[in-house]
Amino acid sequence: MTRAPADDVVGPDRPPTSWRAVAALVVGVLALLIVVASRADLQLNRELLVQLARYVASAGLVLLVPGFALARLVTPRRLGTWWPVLVLPLGLAGSMVLLSALGLLGLRPRPATIVFLLVSAALALWTLRPGRARVPRADWPASVAVLVGAAGAGLLTLVPALHAGFLTVPGTNPDAHQVVGVASFLQESYPLGRNTATALDQIPPAWSGRIPIFHPFGAAIEVGLTGPIQMFAPFVAYLTAAAALGTGLFAAAAHRLAGWGAGLVALLVGASASLLYSALHPYYNQLWGMCLMTAALALAWTWLHHDDARAGVLTVVFLVLSLIAYPTTLPYAVLVIAAIGVGARVRPRIPPALRRRLRKVWPLVLIFFGISVLGALGKLAGVLGQFLGDTPFWQGDINVFPPHGAAYGLDVNQPIIPIAVAAIAAATLFRRGRRAGLAWLGLALLLLLVDYVLRGRGTAEYVDYKHVTFTAVILLPLALGGALRLLVDGVSALRGRRAGAPGDDAAASASDAGTTPAANAGSTSAAGAGTTDGTARAPGASPAGGASPTRRPVVLAAGAAGAAVLLAWGVPAFSASRDQVLGAGQNVTPPLFDVQRWSDEIPEGSSVLIDLPASGTQLWATLFLARDHPLATTDPVSSTTTYSVAPLGKRADYVLGLRLDLKSGRPVPPPRWAVGAPVRSDSQFGLWRMALPARDAARVPQTASTELVLPHPEPFGEAARRAQLDITGNPSRSPGF
After folding, report:
1. Counting Cβ atoms within 10 Å, is residue 542 exposed (0-12), middle (13-18) or buried (19+)?
2. What is the three-state SS of 221-266?
3. pTM over 0.85, yes/no
4. CB of 466 within 8 A of CB of 328?
5. How far is Cα 708 from Cα 198, in angstroms, rounded to an integer?
6. Which run of H or E residues covers position 280?
7. Quick check: 397 and 172 in contact, CB under 8 A?
8. Using one digit for the tens of pLDDT, what is the confidence trace for 67-98?
């Protein structure tokens, strides 16, 4: 396969996107938001809207200012005119690296944020000076189209906050309490230190390698002058948009889509129930990994197909950062890059001169990120090792195997769904050539086989959820992008036939994109025959955008098939996405916010017994009370998780218990040894003074402590046994207390 020369190429060789297409995409995004919001019974008020706008702007300042500077400096030439599209991914990577370095140097969060913003702003202004930026004039219609599609997905994640009427952490995954706890810890403590005056004593060892992904979140909190709970949804909206943007770029690179096509794929995948589940449940670490991985895949396609060294360096950088953010993304990214390389008939390489420059910065990388990389590699080794032995797989909040269609945005449990998506993705990539099609077919079969193997292992529910999520983020953009490309080619062929000008399909395609054939030809690389991907074309063959008269029926049939795929997936996918948004739920409910306020109203240093069942509710209550009070709990969360919990105990100065059962909603009696009426109460919780009778005071030890403990691992199967006990009221009232 011959390569197109890259020296004179400063942007993707796509049909230009018209502002009319951008306007149509904007209308589509607004229609999607309006339809979903109309079913959400929005609780709009001026204070909430002002808060939301302020926090979205604060997070944007942290991510977009450095991203703007980096995009103008390091965007690969092959993506040059689309440099605005890389602002957000590069902003995530740049803020992650620089803020982590400042934190490890010992700067407190507020000074570190100020230094970071000043450096970022100065660099951005410097790139605006003539001759400083390394990018050409932006192709604004194409870039805006991609950004609009990604922004639509991000905005959709804010609907649950508008539905609730207040800013909170969405979803039910208790991992979110640890995200908030780590962010709070970093606001007051050295990243690798220990501090019993904060809610968490230290960053859990299993999360210590992921510290870099919390620093941008912390900087957004500092700029917004708020707390991690209020900033959570606005920040996750940016992560969702970045993940969607990466999938759009990946599909555009694979199928040579125009800017509006990349934006549409970004919207379809980003607004799918699959990606929304990761954002709204929420899986903060996993979402970070997906953002960085999808950007790496899009850059890898440019690197390998066009021998763009800068794209290669950025691919490696994003791969390392995705490894830190979420280690299990690495095997998937490596497999995809291998498939791209096999299809392009090249091996990944970095020019020797550039490799010599990179060697100079490796010592700094090892100093600041060596611990994170080693921790991530250890985590990855643990995951891979579970496939080879008989040890139980890691467990989490997923205890059943996901429905087969869930990872692909469909609320169905039919095994044909992943098979169909994989088949469409691989079949459409045969347009790249037989070798490329076979490479992707092999990868798709491997990913499906791993899912089959995991479903045969009795303890792999949680790991399989991760696997199918990453599989879908790879295959779904390729399938939808391929179907869209078939549809576009079919429309172009149909217009050519109606015009009565056989062989004039290139003109029809260019007209559809809002330009002339001559302008479109100017963006084509000079690779002998002149196809857009640099491959040779036989003399007399039709241009890539059109079809010869003998092939036109085939192209029309393929276009109809592409339309059918998009329609067959889009209608049920919209219903599943709407249900995902409307059913997101709340991690921190108004009653839990009351517990947070009560912590300040209890005399400082007074101990509190948390008499709540082992649950996410107990974890949030522990986080809110641990800062100012010694704690104990009657039923600590105890499993193979990484959660920090209060020590087991039965006595304290105060006791926090339930007034209503967590499941049935029925009243429950006050905790044992509670005195009188509650000193604080709301619809869900009560806070009582506690006093033990003399006969019990002598035998019940005082175990409340300001230091939280990591739960002790239970024998395998014990967590399931405890769940069957159905302890939903106050544990102190259950037999055996």
Report:
1. buried
2. HHHHCCCHHHHHHHHHHHHHHHHHHHHHHHHHHHHCCCHHHHHHHH
3. yes
4. yes
5. 10
6. helix 273-280
7. yes
8. 999 999 999 999 999 999 999 999 999 999 99
